[in-house]
């Protein structure tokens, strides 16, 4: 009998591609309805109508929207992101200078938060109903209830203003030691870890609890298998798909949290670049940054779905 894995993988990849096309259309339309005229913003309030009209013609803003959309999509496909309206520099150069900083922050957050969150979620499922389990549950619910901007603002007030332990601005320039690097990344990393850890703990705990309630785990328990063997040998392999989905969904929350974190801590990442582009109504730069965020989100979700399909023993 033919395996259904390849058709499922192909369908999932096709769905991700179609979703990306739809998202690109939504992003383009959303930037077009932003209030104000980009030509007037660039020239200032003292600009004459003739100057505004000339700049709009030079920037092809008078072309039909559908023509500008396909021109923009063609540039994305070929790697030509266009030129920034605000500073007349290639957008690819602007993003390249900031993307590495955002990836460093996201990678550091993932390396710090994912092991801790999975450990708390799995051990909480193993000790279900205990004081430890209830304490972890209460802590995760509390963290979920607090928005990331509140966490970031509180961190600045406590550690930068009152205690003066950490810098309020996270600009990694002229770092001379590893300890100084840790001080710079401490508050953004802590804030983003709060954002992603709580959901990951809850979802991984639920996946392991569901696996522990299955008949084959009960049979292993009746045979006298230890709790660690039951979890590591029987429960975790079958809970791998949901756990990977939990990790991917939690990491996707970084896309929202990183915008707030980079803005509050003045971190020179791509999210801060997009916020600054919104202020100057730099449409090509806004569109490119938004598409990068959407692409990363779809990549995480699609990867989680593929791992869930490949880890499903029934499909194999």
Structural commentary:
The structure is a single chain. The relative contact order is 0.14. Helix 9 (about 215-220) runs antiparallel to helix 10. This protein has a domain at about 90-310: Orthogonal Bundle (MetI-like fold). It is mainly alpha-helical and about 325 residues long. The model has no long low-confidence stretch (mean pLDDT about 80). The protein has helices at about 5-30, 40-45, 50-60, 65-80, 90-125, 130-145, 150-160, 180-210, 215-220, 225-250, 255-265, 270-280, 285-310. It starts with a helix and ends in a 6-residue tail after the last helix.
Features:
316 residues; MetI-like fold; mainly alpha
Topology:
Elements: H1 5-32, H2 38-43, H3 49-58, H4 65-78, H5 91-126, H6 131-145, H7 148-162, H8 178-212, H9 215-222, H10 227-252, H11 254-264, H12 270-280, H13 283-310
Quick overview:
The chain is mainly alpha-helical. The protein has helices at 5-32, 38-43, 49-58, 65-78, 91-126, 131-145, 148-162, 178-212, 215-222, 227-252, 254-264, 270-280, 283-310. The chain has a domain at 91-310: MetI-like (MetI-like fold), CATH 1.10.3720.
For the residues shown, what is the average pLDDT? 81
Shape: flat
How many helices? The count is: 13
* Percentage of residues in helical conformation: over 70%
Distance between the termini: 11 Å
Q: If you consult CATH, what is the topology of the domain at 91-310?
A: MetI-like fold
C-alpha Rg (nearest Å): 24 Å
* Poorly predicted residue ranges: none
H/E order of the elements? HHHHHHHHHHHHH
Major sheet summary line: none
What's the architecture of the domain at 91-310 in CATH terms? Orthogonal Bundle
Total number of β-strand segments? 0
Give the structural class: mainly alpha
Supply the CATH superfamily name of the domain at 91-310.
MetI-like
| CATH class identity of the domain at 91-310 | Mainly Alpha
The share of residues in extended strands comes to under 5%
């Amino acid at each position: 009998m033919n395996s259904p894995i390849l058709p499922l993988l192909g369908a999932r990849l096709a769905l991700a591609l179609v979703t990306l096309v739809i998202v690109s259309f939504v992003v383009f339309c959303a930037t077009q309805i932003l209030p104000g005229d980009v030509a007037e913003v660039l020239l200032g309030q003292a600009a004459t109508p003739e100057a505004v009209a000339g700049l709009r013609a030079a920037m092809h803003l008078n072309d039909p929207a559908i023509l500008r959309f396909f021109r923009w999509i063609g540039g994305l496909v070929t790697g030509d992101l266009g030129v920034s309206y605000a500073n007349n520099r290639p957008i690819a150069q602007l993003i390249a200078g900031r993307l590495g900083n955002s990836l460093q922050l996201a990678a550091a957050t993932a390396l710090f938060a994912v092991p801790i969150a999975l450990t708390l979620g799995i051990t909480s499922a193993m000790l279900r109903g205990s004081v430890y389990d209830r304490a972890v549950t209460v802590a995760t619910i509390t963290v979920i209830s607090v928005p990331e901007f509140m966490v970031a603002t509180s961190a600045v007030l406590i550690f930068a203003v009152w205690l003066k332990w950490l810098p309020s601005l996270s600009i990694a320039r002229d770092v001379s030691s590893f300890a100084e690097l840790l001080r710079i990344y401490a508050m953004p990393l802590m804030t983003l870890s709060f954002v992603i850890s709580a959901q990951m703990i809850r979802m991984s705990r639920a996946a392991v609890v569901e696996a522990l309630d299955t008949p084959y785990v009960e049979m292993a328990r009746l045979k006298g298998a230890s709790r660690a063997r039951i979890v590591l040998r029987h429960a975790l392999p079958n809970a791998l798909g949901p756990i990977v989905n939990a990790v991917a969904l939690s990491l996707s929350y970084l896309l929202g949290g990183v915008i707030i974190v980079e803005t509050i801590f003045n971190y020179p990442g791509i999210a801060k670049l997009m916020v600054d582009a919104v202020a100057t109504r730099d449409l090509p730069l806004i569109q490119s940054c938004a598409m990068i965020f959407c692409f990363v989100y779809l990549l995480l979700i699609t990867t989680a779905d593929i791992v869930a399909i490949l880890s499903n023993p029934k499909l194999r």
